[in-house]
């Protein structure tokens, strides 16, 4: 049986993903989206020469030559001076207020002696003192978030300051989620003999929404060929279809034939991965289809390694890849039966800041109890033999 290496499987997925078309969204919906075009400033920043301090707008030359300046008024933030500042005069000004024309410096309140309507500089003030010049931070048209940039709080804040109301971003993918299995009970349903509670649709919805997708959850599909083919068809009008269960080789695994019947072309099946070996991946037109093994931990592992990064790429994040983070084994660990093995593990920062990975005692693709006791997985490559404590490993965080 030939199994695809994880890296090769990811490359094949990535080769099938192109960014979705762009759309324009209001700035308050832009966080986390990827800019589809350069997002530029609509204004100069500051938009006008303004005071950086509380004090007096002055002509700098006067502060060296005129013993006391006549205070002719007061400008608060938001005010506009009605007339230019005349020689020999000063005007009170607060932080952020526009400098009157004629003024070229601000005499700070702490550098002045005020006596009624006259103000005496304690020393000469240089041109530009305490002035923030128009455009000195950002020029109108300057790029604040280049195309391809994932918009963070920093970009959205800068764009809001720059007079921008909306931004072009890649569309979110529509993800349809199906679960197959006659044995599956709805969440919270009363237990029934021989049946188990279904969790994968919720898991996939949480993970896909966290990855930026819009998720449509379909009803559970019984293990029957016709019902499976029908459900698959209903799930194929989105950008991504994620089907849980039914991709192994058992007599009740109807997903692969259903997908093939509905014109979904297989790209690969089976990866050298535990949990997650039976992963199936294909496409119909631009729609990507993941057939995920039904065991809950297999679903999580395959999502982290393949589905999640694909969803990020669809949203324009061209560098998205399996989100490995460096970690260090706290205890020895070994791969299972020739497959790269994802072990549920506690992942806690050690004193030196490195993530210390302690695999849970129980390991198995069905062990949701072990999953609950973990922070994610550590990756033990096949062929590594037993890795001693202290080994550098990759981890995947939940
Ligand atoms: P399958 O991939 O359909 O062979 O399922 C593998 C194992 O995962 C079986 O024990 C199933 O009962 C279980 N399973 C399948 N689908 C789900 C699901 N949606 N939620 C939780 N467990 C599931
Ligand atoms: Mg099944």
What does this structure look like?
With 398 residues, this protein is α/β, with parallel strands linked by helices. It is built from eight helices and 26 strands. The protein has helices spanning 6-15, 60-65, 153-161, 200-210, 225-235, 255-261, 296-314, 368-372, and strands spanning 22-26, 39-40, 50-51, 55-58, 69-75, 89-93, 105-108, 112-115, 118-121, 131-132, 143-145, 166-170, 174-179, 184-185, 196-197, 214-217, 240-244, 265-269, 273-274, 280-284, 287-292, 325-329, 340-349, 355-359, 376-380, 392-397. The two termini are 31 Å apart. Magnesium ion (MG) binds at residues 180-181, 223, 245-246, 294.
For the sheet with most strands, the description reads:
6 strands, mixed
Query: How much of the sequence is in beta strands?
Result: 25-35%
**What's the total helix number?**
8
Strand order of the largest sheet: 7-4-6-5-9-8
Q: Based on Cα principal axes, name the global outline.
A: elongated
Which percent range fits the helix content?
10-25%
Query: What is the terminal-to-terminal distance?
Result: 31 Å
Radius of gyration: 31 Å
Low-confidence parts, pLDDT < 50 over ≥5 residues?
none
Instruction: List each distinct ligand once.
Output: adenosine monophosphate, magnesium ion
Total DSSP E strands: 26
The computed structural class is alpha/beta
Question: SSE layout and pairings?
Answer:
Elements: H1 6-15, E1 22-26, E2 39-40, E3 50-51, E4 55-58, H2 60-65, E5 69-75, E6 89-93, E7 105-108, E8 112-115, E9 118-121, E10 131-132, E11 143-145, H3 153-161, E12 166-170, E13 174-179, E14 184-185, E15 196-197, H4 200-210, E16 214-217, H5 225-235, E17 240-244, H6 255-261, E18 265-269, E19 273-274, E20 280-284, E21 287-292, H7 296-314, E22 325-329, E23 340-349, E24 355-359, H8 368-372, E25 376-380, E26 392-397
Parallel strand pairs: 5-6, 13-16, 13-17, 14-15, 17-21, 19-23, 22-24
Antiparallel strand pairs: 1-12, 2-11, 3-10, 4-6, 4-7, 5-9, 8-9, 18-20, 20-21, 22-26, 23-24, 23-25, 25-26
Helix pairs in contact: 1-7, 4-7, 5-6
Bound molecules: adenosine monophosphate and magnesium ion (MG).
């Amino acid at each position: 049986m030939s199994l695809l290496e994880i890296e090769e499987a990811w490359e094949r997925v990535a080769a099938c993903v192109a960014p979705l078309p762009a759309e324009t969204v209001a700035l308050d919906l832009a966080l986390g989206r990827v800019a589809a075009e350069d997002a530029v400033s609509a204004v100069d920043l500051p938009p006008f020469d303004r005071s950086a301090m509380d004090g007096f707008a002055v002509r700098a030359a006067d502060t060296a030559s005129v013993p006391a300046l006549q205070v002719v008024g007061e400008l608060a933030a938001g005010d506009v001076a009605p007339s230019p500042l005349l020689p020999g005069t000063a005007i009170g000004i607060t932080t952020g207020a526009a400098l009157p024309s004629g003024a070229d410096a601000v005499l700070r309140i702490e550098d002045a002696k005020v006596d009624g309507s006259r103000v005496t500089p304690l020393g000469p003030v240089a041109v530009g003192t305490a002035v923030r010049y128009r455009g000195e931070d950002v020029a109108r048209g300057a790029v604040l978030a280049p195309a391809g940039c994932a918009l963070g709080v920093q970009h959205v804040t800068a764009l809001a300051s720059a007079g921008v109301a909306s931004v072009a971003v890649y569309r979110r993918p529509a993800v349809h989620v199906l679960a197959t299995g006659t044995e599956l009970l709805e969440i919270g349903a009363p237990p029934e003999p021989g049946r188990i509670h279904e969790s994968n649709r919720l898991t996939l919805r949480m993970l896909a929404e966290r990855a930026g997708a819009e998720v449509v959850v379909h009803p559970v599909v019984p293990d029957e060929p016709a019902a499976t083919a029908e459900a698959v068809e209903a799930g194929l009008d989105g950008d991504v279809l994620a089907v849980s269960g039914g991709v192994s080789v058992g007599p009740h695994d109807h997903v692969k034939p259903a997908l093939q019947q509905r014109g979904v072309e297989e790209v690969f099946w089976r990866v050298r991965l535990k949990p997650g070996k039976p992963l199936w991946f294909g496409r119909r037109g631009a729609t990507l289809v993941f057939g995920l093994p039904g065991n809950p931990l297999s679903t999580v592992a395959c999502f982290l390694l393949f589905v999640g990064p694909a969803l990020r790429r669809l949203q324009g994040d061209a560098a998205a890849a399996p989100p490995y983070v460096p970690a260090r084994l706290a205890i020895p660990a070994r791969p299972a039966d020739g497959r790269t093995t994802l072990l549920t593990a506690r992942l806690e920062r050690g004193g030196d800041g490195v993530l210390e990975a302690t695999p849970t005692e129980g390991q198995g693709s069905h062990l949701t109890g072990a999953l609950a006791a973990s922070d994610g997985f550590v990756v033990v490559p096949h062929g590594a033999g037993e890795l001693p404590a202290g080994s550098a490993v990759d981890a995947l965080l939940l």
